[in-house]
Every structure is written in structure tokens, then in C-alpha cells.
Amino acid sequence: MADDTADVPADDAALNAALAAEHAAIWGYGVVGAALGAGQAAVLAAEIAHRDVRDRVTTLLADRGTEPVPPEGGYALPFPVLSAVDAAALAVVLEEGVSAAWVRVLDRTAERSTRELAAEVLGAAEVRAVGWRAAAAQNPTTRAFPGL
User: Fold this and answer.
1) Which of 21, 29, 47 has its CA nearest to residue 88?
2) How far is CA 11 from CA 14, 25, 28, 64, in A?
3) Beta carbons within 10 angstroms of residue 59's beta carbon
4) How far is C-alpha 26 from the geometric centre of its chain's CA atoms?
5) Does residue 5 contact residue 13 with C-beta atoms inside 8 Å?
6) Confidence of residue 63 (pLDDT cuts 50, 70, 90)
7) Are residues 109 and 11 in contact, defined by beta-carbon separation less than 8 angstroms?
8) Alpha helix (H) residue ranges in 37-111
9) What is the dihedral of CA 35, 144, 148, 29, to 10 degrees?
10) In whole numbers, what is the pLDDT of the chain averaged over residues?
11) Mean pLDDT, to the nearest integer, of 80-91?
């Protein structure tokens, strides 16, 4: 595949990377929901939140004249998801991946509205990650600098 990012401004490239992370999170929450059993409301809320962000970023990129990255057909899981604890741990990985992508957006843009969006999404991802870390019995449950 050719590198189509050569002519894309750095902030749009970072937004597209964040969009790719949102696509992966949406797909991953399907796996989390299938394996979790209980706690479906949290899975549904997280998936809806990521779909909302996906839609906002897709519109933002299209308005800027940048082609939004499409979702992949599937994504490799970082580990087998065989239990509710594994499902919660996967949700942590998804939220941390989204957080890392949005930190890059913060690093690469000076536009106030884009920075506000990045900060909003980063904070929401960390709040969800705290709940999932607790469900996966991970300590500490909070991160001082999410996404770093």
C-alpha cells in the first residue's frame, strides 16, 4: 500500500491515526461484549461513545478535505479472550490505544477546537479504562498521564 500521508498535514494525519484507533476500539468492543457476559451496559456505552467520536472525526477530516481512514475488516487481538477478566483486560488495551492516539493529536495540532476534542476524548477514555482496570483486577486502576 502506498503512503498517502505524504501530502497530509501533521494534525490531519494524527486525526486519521486517532480515527483508526477508534475503528479498532469499536471492533474490539464486539469481542469484549461477546466474552463478558455481565456488564453489557458498560460495553454498549463504550461502543456508542467510540462510534460518536468516529463520526465526529470522520466529519472533521472530510470537512478539511482529507480522506478519512476506513475501518479494517478485522483486527488482531493482543491475547486470547477466554473469560470476563480477559474481556475487561482487552477493553483496557482498547482504551489505552485510543488514549495514545489522542495524545498524538494533542501534540500535533494547535487548533483550539481539535485540542478540545482531543482532551475530551482522552479524559473519557481514561474514565472508561479505570472501570475496566478494576474489572480486570489491574493495579493501579488510574494512570497519571493517560496515553503516555
Assistant:
1) 29
2) 5, 21, 25, 11
3) 11
4) 8
5) yes
6) very high
7) yes
8) 40-63, 84-108
9) 20
10) 92
11) 96
Domain borders along the chain are: 16-135
Residue with cell 497519571: 144
State in Å, rounded, how far the first CA of the chain is from the last one.
Answer: 29
Cell 470522520, residue located: 58
Helix axes 40-63, 112-135, angle to 10 degrees: 160
Q: Identify the three-state secondary structure at position 143.
A: coil
Report pTM. Answer: 0.90
- Grid cell for residue 16: 486519521
Confidence of residue 4 (pLDDT cuts 50, 70, 90): very low
Write the CATH number of the domain with boundaries 16-135.
Answer: 1.20.1260.10
